[in-house]
Amino acid sequence: MARPKLLPDNFTLCLVGTVILASLLPVHGQAAVGFNWVTNVAVGLLFFLHGAKLSREAIIAGATHWRLHLVVLLSTFALFPLLGLALKPLLSPLVTPALYAGVLFLCTLPSTVQSSIAFTSIAKGNVPAAVCSASASSLLGIFITPALVSLVVTNQAAGGGASPWHTVGNIVLQLLVPFVAGQLLRPLIGKWIERNRGVLKFVDQGSILLVVYGAFSEAVNEGLWHQIPLSALGGLLLLCVVLLALALAVTIFVSKRLGFSRADQITIIFCGSKKSLAAGVPMAKVIFASHAVGAVVLPLMLFHQIQLMVCAALAQRWGARDMSGETHAASRERTAAAVARR
Fold first, then answer.
1. ∠ at Cα 249 (246, 254), nearest 5°?
2. What is the fold, at CATH topology level, of the domain defined by 11-331?
3. pLDDT, tens digit (0-9, with 9 covering 90-100), for 184-222
4. Distance (Å, whole) CA 161 – CA 289
């Protein structure tokens, strides 16, 4: 039987199920300590495998396109935080302070890697440049995101009172060190990773589900759902839609205004308008106090699903348009050749 078009993908359904499970059966006490240790190991394994998967050849192939990469990085780490701060007076009354802290955290995150590249490919964009931009964004985010969080998110929301350097140190230890180890071991295990992509997908999605379950368990134990009214969830949905629409509009306008080719425009739009759930959830676990993580990652989870749905529709539309253009061009060439032979 065909899958209903409006039905979310399996991973989104798993995320929703995980939140429900954590709301009904939250882990607590000594079990939470052991669960936290398992989650840390899973996150470290995730970044190790990503490091082993990342192709240095693909990065070098796109690294020379510095203007494109600069636009993507400015969109990711400058435009989004500015939009989050600019929208705060207007839209923050629609949600709770904890949820808006999550929106600001979302604005500081790096771009996605897999989906940015996939959508760029579907839309006939510059794939090597997308690989380079998305990978650079993900790596630089390890350092830039905690620094931005310290600037745009209140200390109360980022709780614990830890210094930005302490936070960076924790992220380097938990995320960057395994990533670099994976890169160093790529010559030994890279081919095995390529042959067993399902393992990376399992660890990728599994580690996110573990972090989400642990985060929401802690938040539920602290009374999360008593603090967030239903109207705030509706306001959060509107806020995420507005944020994505503005990011898409700005990247489309700027990429055209700067004279980039159509393929490069597509790369800028998809890499510069998206935020990484895979990087954001583990970072939130390191940066924020444990009781605040649930509310902080909720905007990211919602934005993630919206961006996937919207960008998938755009990629298919632009890709089909290019295919149609290629068909018409080929038809014109055949007609011209036929006329020339007469």
1. 120
2. Na+/H+ antiporter like fold (1.20.1530)
3. 888 888 888 888 877 777 877 787 788 778 877 877 776
4. 9
